[in-house]
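Input sequence (302 aa), recorded before submission:
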Amino acid sequence: MDEKAPENTFRIGVDLGGTKTEVILLDSSDTVLFKNRIKTPRHDYGDIVGAIHNLVEMAASHIPAQARRCIGIGIPGSINAQTGLVQNANTTCLIGRPLKADIESTLGSTIALENDANCFTHAECRAGAAQGYGLVFGIIMGTGCGGGICINGQVRQGPNRIAGEWGHYAVDPRGPQCYCGNKGCVETKISGGGVEAAFYGRYGRIISMQSILQGYRSADPECSEAFMQFLEDYGRCLGGLISIIDPDAVVLGGGLSNIDELYTIGLEQVRTYAFHKNLVTPVLKNILGDSAGVYGAAWIGA
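Predicted structure, token format:
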């Protein structure tokens, strides 16, 4: 990953999320020249390819003629190195599809494609909350739950392209079925979708994660019980992770990272479940907000 684009190079980044897809255009000084986001058509593969194409072309229209451009795209999954097909995507219509090849075909351009949590982690290490730390574990807690590892500014992919895929570590063999085929994955426990599904299974009510949080803060008994279970699961999952890799810092992103209790009561739960009881690992809130992923995608562009 280049730390700075060559002169007269414009970077286009696309962050394909579970609910929104965002595009950004940066010049060689990382000044934002264009930015836009749309609702993700997450259930139709063809619509996703078309949406990415349209967003890239919108951004490209702001680039001077003859200028060099590079394009990076972050997705909620990864590309299998042997087959070139998407694997492990929580936007399930992407699984088994040649997304990189299809986007390159429709754009007529080479692109770089990377896991969205890796893009997020890279961005926060380069220009956000995790600057200056050596080994950083980045976590996205939103519609789903993913992770990425960045070591001295370089994202770790691994031979299977799944380094950091903490969201699909099975922590509860008696837990709910995950789309990946396992039961009780981290994602089923501490993502927004996972908490909402658990609430419905226990209380028979369809309610959003935001409403569960508001109910907890208003002392609603059912919401309080569900939210405290969420914080305990968060502590168990993150405490175990820290015990394994002992990172210099953890940085949180995604919509759930804005929950203040993660950094207070949740952090106490992390300390409870971590092997080292006098835990000093900083758990940081992102600085770049919900655009961290799109910056990271632009910076990994090819």
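Checked by second reader. The two ends are 9 Å apart (CA to CA).
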